[in-house]
């Protein structure tokens, strides 16, 4: 591909990403992968260059751009080399027309930027949410140890017990240690959250929003397979990924439970009032993961945030039904918005008299309401909120 053709390819991809974001469809990384799967003639350098252009435009444009061309014109406005490639050459973009406007730049749409500021995040904290994330792994203590594991390249030790950090793009999933289940890709913040949970051997622990089971596997490793783990979710596809992952990791997961949205307690009835601990890694906006999925700012609006808040309250109420007297709930979101963190805890405690919040100990993060918030600027992790609730 010529340099101009790379610009045009990025424009086409951005058009698809914008349409998908508005429709709450596929994420950018999947769209890019599908695009190049159908264009195998593109070499690795072309794919990398186009991908970098796409994400550069996404990070630059706060509000949703009108088009991929407008988004790339915003990049051209800051980079004369990109601007020069709007030259009308074969397979390249048409020349920039008189009066043609680039997309608006910024950190986020105005309403969302205001919500971030109301959550006590300044410009530097918000900008850090859009930086490039490193790649963190967790060495699986069921099979290996960080101090002795042999990997193709050394990683930087993290504050988590078995965490190592590598540069973004390091092909860890191609390593033998990954195939053997000795390592898992997991952000340092997620690792620290699992380490902070008030659980111990012999406990019954329910991962209520388990997804693909990243935290379930981390719990199994932390507890040496000495707890009864129940992984539940409404997403059949993601939950189906857990069994092969657990087998590879040597992790014992006693039950995987597929839930029917709105009828969850039918499937969870055997554990009603029995769980020592319920982990609620709640569905959220993902504002804490914008380093990896910066187009998430384009997907979120006030209506969607309100829907997510209702869902977060719902899963917390389910967790309360599952928790034994004196047991606990951990509420986690990969969000830095107060609406998806402290506000949900305040609302839960108002609905459930007798419950109380209790402190957790993490080596990173700062107090936020009744919990702790992690963020990329101060902690080098994704953005998270975690709080612990204790049953009467």
Brief characterization of the structure:
By secondary structure, the protein is of the alpha/beta class. 39% of the residues lie in helices and 16% in strands.
Task: Please explain how this structure is put together.
The chain has 392 residues and is an alpha/beta fold. The chain has 3 domains: 3-106; 135-185, Alpha-Beta Plaits (2-Layer Sandwich), CATH 3.30.70; 196-390, Rossmann fold (3-Layer(aba) Sandwich). 39% of the residues lie in helices and 16% in strands. It has helices at residues 3-22, 28-37, 44-60, 68-76, 80-83, 110-118, 123-128, 176-179, 188-196, 214-222, 236-240, 242-249, 264-268, 296-299, 302-322, 342-351, 376-379; strands at 135-139, 156-157, 163-166, 183-185, 204-207, 228-233, 255-258, 275-281, 323-333, 356-358, 366-368, 371-374, 384-390. The strands form 2 sheets. Strands 5, 6, 7, 8, 9, 10, 11, 12 and 13 form a 9-stranded mixed β-sheet that branches.
> What is the C-level CATH assignment of the largest domain?
Alpha Beta
How many independent structural domains? 3
Q: In angstroms, what separates the terminal alpha carbons?
A: 65 Å
Strand content: 15-25%
In the CATH hierarchy, what is the architecture of the largest domain at level 2?
3-Layer(aba) Sandwich
Q: How much helix is in the residues? A: 25-40%
Q: What's the number of extended β-strand segments?
A: 13
The outline comes out as globular
CATH topology of the largest domain: Rossmann fold
Average pLDDT: 96
Which series of helices and strands comes N to C?
HHHHHHHEEEHEHEHEHHEHEHHEHEEEHE
Major β-sheet profile? 9 strands, mixed
Q: What radius of gyration results from the CA coordinates? A: 22 Å
- Going by CATH, what is the homologous superfamily of the largest domain? Vaccinia Virus protein VP39
Instruction: Enumerate how many helices there are, as a single number.
Output: 17
Which oligomerization state do the chains in this entry correspond to? single chain
Structural class: alpha/beta
Low-confidence stretches: none
């Amino acid at each position: 591909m010529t340099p101009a053709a790379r610009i045009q390819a990025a424009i086409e991809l951005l058009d698809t990403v914008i349409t998908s974001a508005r429709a709450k469809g596929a994420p950018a990384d999947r769209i890019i992968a599908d695009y190049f799967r159908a264009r195998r003639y593109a070499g690795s350098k072309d794919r990398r260059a186009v991908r970098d252009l796409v994400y550069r435009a996404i990070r630059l444009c706060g509000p949703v751009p009108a088009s991929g061309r407008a988004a790339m014109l915003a990049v051209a406005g800051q980079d004369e080399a990109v601007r020069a490639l709007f030259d009308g050459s074969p397979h390249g973009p048409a020349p920039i027309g008189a009066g043609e406007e680039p997309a608006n730049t910024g950190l986020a749409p105005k309403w969302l930027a205001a919500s971030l500021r109301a959550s006590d995040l300044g410009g530097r904290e918000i900008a850090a949410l859009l930086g490039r994330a490193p790649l963190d792994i967790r060495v699986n203590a069921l099979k290996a140890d960080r101090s002795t594991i042999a990997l193709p390249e050394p990683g930087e030790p993290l504050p988590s017990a078995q965490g190592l950090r590598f540069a973004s793009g390091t092909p860890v999933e191609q390593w033998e240690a990954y195939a053997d289940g000795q390592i898992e890709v997991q952000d340092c913040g997620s690792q620290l959250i699992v380490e902070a949970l008030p659980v111990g051997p012999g406990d019954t622990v329910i991962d209520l929003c388990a997804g693909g089971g990243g935290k379930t596997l981390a719990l199994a490793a932390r507890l040496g397979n000495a707890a009864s783990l129940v992984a539940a979710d409404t997403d059949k596809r993601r939950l189906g990924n857990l069994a092969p992952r657990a087998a590879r990791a040597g992790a014992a997961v006693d039950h995987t439970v597929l839930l029917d949205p709105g009828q969850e307690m039918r499937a969870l009835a055997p554990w009603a009032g029995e769980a020592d601990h319920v982990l609620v890694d709640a569905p959220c906006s993902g504002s804490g993961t914008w380093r990896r999925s910066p187009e998430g700012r384009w997907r979120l609006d006030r209506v969607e945030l309100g829907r997510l808040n209702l869902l977060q309250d719902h899963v917390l109420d389910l967790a309360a039904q599952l928790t034994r007297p004196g047991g606990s709930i951990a509420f986690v979101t990969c969000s830095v918005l107060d609406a998806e963190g402290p506000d949900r805890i305040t609302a839960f405690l108002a609905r459930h008299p007798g419950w109380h919040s209790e402190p957790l100990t993490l080596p990173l993060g700062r107090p936020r309401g009744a919990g702790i918030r992690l963020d990329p600027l101060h902690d080098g992790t994704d953005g998270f909120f975690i709080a612990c609730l204790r049953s009467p």
